Amino acid sequence: MKLKIKAQPGVTYECYRGFTDNMGSRVRRGQRYYMMSEWRDFYYMHSVSRKGYGKAAPKKEFAAHFIPLNPIDAA
């Protein structure tokens, strides 16, 4: 069974498989990001360190590149 991960506000994600987004910005393995906003086909992510540019992570491939570090409990 394949796990489907959706980006959520307030959750930090770590990239475990690098990629280049549609604007040409490189997302490297080990970097940590949080979701700023949601577009039609992309999540707009920004670095936790607040350095660099925002990244556009495709929704379809989000689970293949990111893992949550501090998931919000569904209580």
Query: N- to C-terminal separation?
Result: 23 Å
- Tell me the number of helical segments per DSSP (H or I, 4 or more residues long): 1
Count of DSSP strands? 7
Q: Roughly how many Å is the radius of gyration? A: 12 Å
Shape annotation: globular
- Helix and strand run: EEEEEEHE
Q: Which sheet architecture does the biggest sheet show?
A: 5 strands, antiparallel
The CATH architecture term is: Roll
How many domains, in number, for the residues? 1
Might you state the CATH topology name? SH3 type barrels
Assigned CATH class: Mainly Beta
Side-by-side strand order of the widest sheet? 6-5-4-1-7
- Low-confidence runs (pLDDT<50, min 5 residues)? none
Oligomer: single chain
Helix content: under 10%
Architecture overview:
The protein has 75 residues and is mainly beta. It has one domain (12-68): SH3 type barrels. It has one helix spanning 62-65, and strands at residues 12-15, 19-20, 26-27, 32-38, 42-47, 55-58, 66-68. A five-stranded antiparallel beta sheet has the order 6-5-4-1-7. A two-stranded antiparallel ribbon has the order 2-3. The longest helix is centred in the C-terminal third of the chain and has 4 residues, at 62-65.
Walk me through the topology:
Blueprint: E1 12-15, E2 19-20, E3 26-27, E4 32-38, E5 42-47, E6 55-58, H1 62-65, E7 66-68
Antiparallel strand pairs: 1-4, 1-7, 2-3, 4-5, 5-6
